[in-house]
Design brief:
Length: 95
């Protein structure tokens, strides 16, 4: 079971702020989710034949690889590259 202390720890890790009066609501909701996941873990699937969604037709575009000569076109749109690598900003702050 998730305790209020666990929730506060998760909030700190995720950099979330939840009003103190709403904390019990989140604890309750997360505990219900954990219970559902525990029930799903008990489902026996070893002897069941599963249909794969890969077999179904998709309305998405074809996944065609880009030739190396076309990579330069992609790099022209990127804000910054070094030796064919895309430079992305740091998104995780260190404490």
């Amino acid at each position: 079971m998730l305790s209020p202390e666990h929730l506060h720890h998760l909030m700190k890790l995720a950099h979330l702020k939840i009003p103190e009066h709403e904390a019990p609501i989140y604890v309750n909701s997360l505990n219900k989710l954990i219970d559902i996941l525990a029930m799903l873990e008990k489902v026996e699937l070893n002897n069941k034949e599963l249909s794969l969604s890969v077999e179904k037709l998709t309305h998405l575009r074809d996944d065609n690889p880009i030739l190396p000569s076309e990579q330069s076109l992609c790099e022209q749109c990127a804000p910054q590259t070094i030796s064919h690598f895309y430079i992305v900003p740091k998104v995780i702050e260190e404490e």
